[in-house]
Amino acid sequence: MASQVFAKEIGKCPKGQIPMRTGRNSPLYPTAGAGGPTQEVQSSSTSSRQYVHHHAYTATTISHPPSYKGTEVVMNVWQPFVEPEDFSLAQLWVMNTGLSFTPDSINWPMNSIETGWQVYSDLYSDMRPRLFVYWTGDGYVKTGCYNLNQDCSSLSPGFVQVSNKVLLGGAISPPSAANSEQYEIRLRVFKDDDSGNWWLQFNQDYVGYWPSYLFHSLQNTSDLIQWGGEVFDVRDDNSQTKTHMGSGDIPASGFRKAAYQRNLQYVAMNNKLYQVQDLQAVSTKPTCYTVSSGSSKAWGTHFYYGGRC
């Protein structure tokens, strides 16, 4: 298992305190999630600069009525090449589309809870893979922020940390290497029935929670879960990004070369974990980034993903 540099070098904070990054940057452009699989391109109205989100991901079928209460996944960690201003990440999305599917009833904006690893120098000042959390309560329009309320509106603070061992935005080490050891992290997001909040578990540690009041459609349950990779591409012209997704290798390269996520499970209404069935695979830029799913006894439902242009 990969772990955090903070855990290796510091261990933990005193009881009653939590670790926090200092000297954090603010991203200059639309942030992670600010282009979930439902939003692909954003451009500036004052220049030709484009902000493009490329995805290669897998998804459950949309559950109606919403019946997912979380997910668990194991993913290997890489340190991909990332161009300046771009980012590359691997994550899960616990979402509610907000669609009622009922005539004459109100549709809410999409809500999303997101966590995984990310390489993003504009935010973290280096190219190391780092643990992140993110959320939005209105489809990435006005709400949503990284980690411990970075870029949050003062009126809508986000994630609440309780662990004194996990550093949000902290580097994960070591990363996997091609034809060598594969280092993984385990992530679990689940709904706590007593509080109504959505909790995050990183490896063995319960990190904290997203308060239910941040959301509308996601206050109770999720109707869609996704897992995959994303590249955020900042372009001043029509050239293609050189940023890698995952390891930078295509899914067909297989184990020890390509990025993967395995043992995909969802939390059902009875709070038990079940293997995901009927996985849907989507690539928004298949000439560069692709995804290939499968199933096995050891890895359960899984997929390889990634690539480069």
From TrEMBL:
- Report the residue ranges that make up the Neprosin PEP catalytic domain in this protein: 49-309
Under InterPro entries, the record lists:
Glutamic_endopeptidase (IPR053168), Neprosin (IPR004314)
Q: So which domain of life are we looking at?
A: Eukaryota
The protein depicted here goes by the name Neprosin PEP catalytic domain-containing protein
